[in-house]
Amino acid sequence: MGNGTSTREFAALYEEVYQDMYKFARYTLGHPQDAEDVVSEAIVDGYHSFGKLRRKESFRPWIFKILSVKCKRKLKEYVHKTTPLPEELAADFPLDENLQIRQAFGRLTDEERLIISMHLFGGYTSKETARILHLKDATVRSKESRALQKMRTWLES
Q: How far is the C-alpha of 28 from the C-alpha of 48, rounded, in Å?
């Protein structure tokens, strides 16, 4: 991306989605440093590919697709590791003040957290999530439904 207009345009679009990108990565991965790293990697890749984006209105889904791929790769590194959702999320995300909900979310598998995060923070439909994660639409819907049911059960007990 050579010219200043494109750089300014990218910066303006990025400014609109940064907080949601960070929330998405933070909830998906559960680690603040890893979230910052994948967001940075997604932004660098997005910046370098920005000239190929045909419609600037598509920036949000496009950059979230890049981010979700980065998160998915990072999650593969976690395969044999279970990580609870860090308690300091309360300070970073005051809208989610319910500790029990955060704890229940943290008990989900990495894939379940990714699917729910893509829906809640990325704004993806189940069809879009399925395409990104290389799953069937019905599989994504059932995994999300089962994950939410697990959370309900944990919250009721």
A: 25
Contact criterion met (CB below 8 Å) for 25 and 122 = no
User: What integer pLDDT is reported at residue 14 of this predicted model?
Assistant: 92
* Residue 113 Cα distances to 4, 7, 47, 59, 121, angstroms: 38, 33, 27, 23, 11
Sign of CA dihedral 36, 41, 47, 53: negative
Q: Which amino acid is at 26?
A: R
Whether 99 and 157 have beta carbons less than 8 Å apart is answered as no
Q: Of 146, 145, 114, nearest to 24 (Cα)?
A: 114
With 0.90 as the threshold, say if the pTM is over it.
no
Q: SS3 letters for 88-134?
A: CHHHHCCCCCCHHHHHHHHHCCHHHHHHHHHHHCCCCCHHHHHHHHC
Angle of helix 59-77 relative to helix 4-29, nearest 10 degrees, comes to 40
The Cα 57–Cα 67 span in angstroms is: 17
For the ranges 27-31, 50-54, 67-71, the lowest mean pLDDT is seen at 27-31
In tens, the pLDDT along 28-51 reads: 887 889 999 999 999 999 999 998
